[in-house]
Amino acid sequence: xxxxxxxxxxxxxxxxxxxxxxxxxxxxxxxxxxxxxxxxxxxxxxxxxxxxxxxxxxxxxxxxxxxxxxxxxxxxxxxxxxxxxxxxxxxxxxxxxxxxxxxxxxxxxxxxxxxxxxxxxxxxxxxxxxxxxxxxxxxxxxxxxxxxxxxxxxxxxxxxxxxxxxxxxxxxxxxxxxxxxxxxxxxxxxxxxxxxxxxxxxxxxxxxxxxxxxxxxxxxxxxxxxxxxxxxxxxxxxxxxxxxxxxxxxxxxxxxxxxxxxxxxxxxxx
Length: 270
Prior knowledge:
Number of helices: 6
CATH superfamily of the largest domain: Response regulator
Helix content: 25-40%
Low-confidence stretches: 129-136
Mean pLDDT: 83
Number of domains: 2
Distance between the termini: 39 Å
CATH class of the largest domain: Alpha Beta
Shape: elongated
Largest sheet: 5 strands, parallel
Radius of gyration: 21 Å
CATH architecture of the largest domain: 3-Layer(aba) Sandwich
């Protein structure tokens, strides 16, 4: 089989099984020809499987037991293209800006994954794999970028973590009400206002959903619809209605919230 005909292979490493499932499903959608040859639940297993299967691409969670994703990458990057996945290390993403590394923020969106896969495909096309079956060489020595990430994660020269929004200012009559984001069940926007729903009250603010997305902790609030952000730990139930739509039941609120098709990957098991 010629190098052009040989399938592109990948390894997925994440200590959370639902995240592995989500990434596998997203990859099947945006890159159906990609073959997932191995999955690892920790860094040590990632290195062992990477050395055994020699995948073209390694998708590595940054924080894993045994070895971190960065430590595993040090052992794998000479033969595999590295893509990091992270939910907590946004402060380290500047280290990717000019390097050969790529990253995905969890939960992984189809749009962002498609961009990453397009980059990987372009790199692989310009660097044909050798006839002995070894993976294509990475685009450059990424040891320097890995060293920068290691320094950041060890708090050496790490910039301050983002200060996420903790209070919402809502006008109530002639008074200003301070609403803690911990009270908010969801945000829902229309053309002019954004609705702030708590268990006991509803407020209207002029801040847009895009502004809120930039200011809220992405681990606390997920976008489930182009017009809705929901507090993750307020979700009580996810079900499908008679039309097949995913609907959320939120604690402390009698109604239901629709999950759009573009965001259904957040609840892939449904």
